[in-house]
Amino acid sequence: MRFLDLVSLIFYNLSRRKGRVLLTAVGVVIGTSAVVVLVSLAVGLRENATKQLWGINDLTSIEVYPGYSFKGSGGGGMMMGGEIEDIKYLTPQAIKEFEAIPGVTKVIVEDYFQGNLNVVHGKLNAYGSLMGISLDDLADMGLEANAGTTELVKGTAIVGSWISRNFYDPKARPDDPPLEPPDLMGQTLKFVVSKWSQDGMEIKKTYSIKIVGVLKESRGQSDGSIFMRLEDVTAWNEWVRGTRINRNKEGYSNVIVKVESPEQVIDITDQINTLGYMAYTPQATVQGINSFFTILQVIFGGVGAIALLVAAIGIANTMAMAILERTREIGLMKAIGATNKDVMSIFLGEAAGIGFIGGLGGVIFGWGASAILNIVAVSYYASQVSEGGGSPLSSVASTPFWLPAFALIFATVIGLISGLYPALRAATLVPVTALKYE
């Protein structure tokens, strides 16, 4: 039997019993739509959870801090309270160890200014976290400029997107209008650094620093930071402390280890921790969230699959009844030359056709239900945000591109499997016996 003739005969047989086929397909529609809606809900929840993580914008970076071991802590990990027994400093030698780890592309040194800083722009003052960085270009950290450049040169600074909002007028009156954030790009600001002498006197120094770049908002630490060259901040820290800093003895406050790909991050983080340092990566948080929601997807998908299995019983029952009603028809087909394979193909095709029709309806219905769920949930959440504050919700359910195809194929396969026994039974009927069946 030719393939096109087989397909034509299958659809003809299904069209002869429209009511029964429709009722049987409804069960598949319910099961398939349940799979689509529940898995879309799990995917949407995962995406929203990831978006709400503040400051996670680079999954190829590892933050490394000095390692502390405490007495009674087994010689290694952190312990609340107790006396520090040993410190693993981030010395230049430690940086060489990190650079030697396979997969590490760059080690970036960060050092915070240890004194008091007041940024002066005309009559306005501001505060901010001043950080020295061992880079010529902040683009190597994945940061982008909203204005100006990301390249650092001596005597210049690059500011985060929030710094302009930190300016205030120290002589402002209560009835003054809100202050408009100044445009800092290209401005030369006064950086007033101060320290306290042993006799309690405040000593100040003023530096004129040109702002050569304003960064794009990253929803991370960089938004509230002021970046300068590491050498400049180190010199200011030495002035604050009144002594030269020996990096071979006390190291740096922290470093950022850049890795080739996110897949290597967790393994390299473990290696750094094994060396005795404290390493943290946002990838660990994201991985934990993804693992949880993957399990949730499996559970939700399993609930929908149960409904599909129930529908499969209905398909098997429909096909079994069809065999009883068409026994003489089967005998006649065999009498005129149809093989067991032909008969089995017809009944398997009909069962798969019911699964396909129900799966197609379930995908359409499930996608529509997900869209309606999004509209209702986003509208409700928007009203809650307007009253109590918070971040807006973009969607609750998100249907990945592979889900409709998977659900449709799965429903068709379920139909095919459920029709296997009735098809075998039809194929093995004896023609003479079938023709005499009443």
Average pLDDT confidence is: 81
| Silhouette | elongated
**Secondary-structure element series:** HHEEEHEEEEEEEEEHHEHEHHHHHH
Count of helical regions? 12
Proportion of helical residues? 40-55%
Structural class call reads alpha+beta
Distance between the ends: 28 Å
Weakly predicted, low-confidence segments: 74-79
Rounded Rg: 35 Å
The total beta strand count reads 14
Number of domains: 2
Main sheet summary: 12 strands, mixed
Q: Tell me the β content.
A: 15-25%
Walk me through the structure.
The chain is 50% helix and 19% strand. It has helices at 3-16, 18-51, 92-99, 230-241, 247-250, 262-274, 282-325, 327-335, 340-388, 402-418, 420-427, 431-435, and strands at 61-65, 67-70, 84-88, 104-112, 116-121, 124-126, 129-133, 145-148, 156-159, 188-196, 202-215, 225-229, 254-259, 278-280. The strands form 2 sheets. Strands 1, 4, 5, 6, 7, 8, 9, 10, 11, 12, 13 and 14 form a 12-stranded mixed beta sheet that branches. 33% of the residues are buried. Residues 74-79 have low confidence and may be disordered.
Structure, briefly:
Helices cover about 50% and strands about 20% of the residues.
Keywords:
single chain, 438 residues, alpha+beta, 2 domains, 12 helices, 19% strand
Write the layout of secondary structure elements.
Elements: H1 3-16, H2 18-51, E1 61-65, E2 67-70, E3 84-88, H3 92-99, E4 104-112, E5 116-121, E6 124-126, E7 129-133, E8 145-148, E9 156-159, E10 188-196, E11 202-215, E12 225-229, H4 230-241, H5 247-250, E13 254-259, H6 262-274, E14 278-280, H7 282-325, H8 327-335, H9 340-388, H10 402-418, H11 420-427, H12 431-435
Parallel strand pairs: 7-12, 9-11
Antiparallel strand pairs: 1-13, 1-14, 2-3, 4-7, 4-13, 5-6, 5-10, 8-11, 9-12, 10-11
Helix pairs in contact: 1-9, 2-7, 2-9, 2-10, 7-9, 7-10, 7-11, 9-10, 9-11
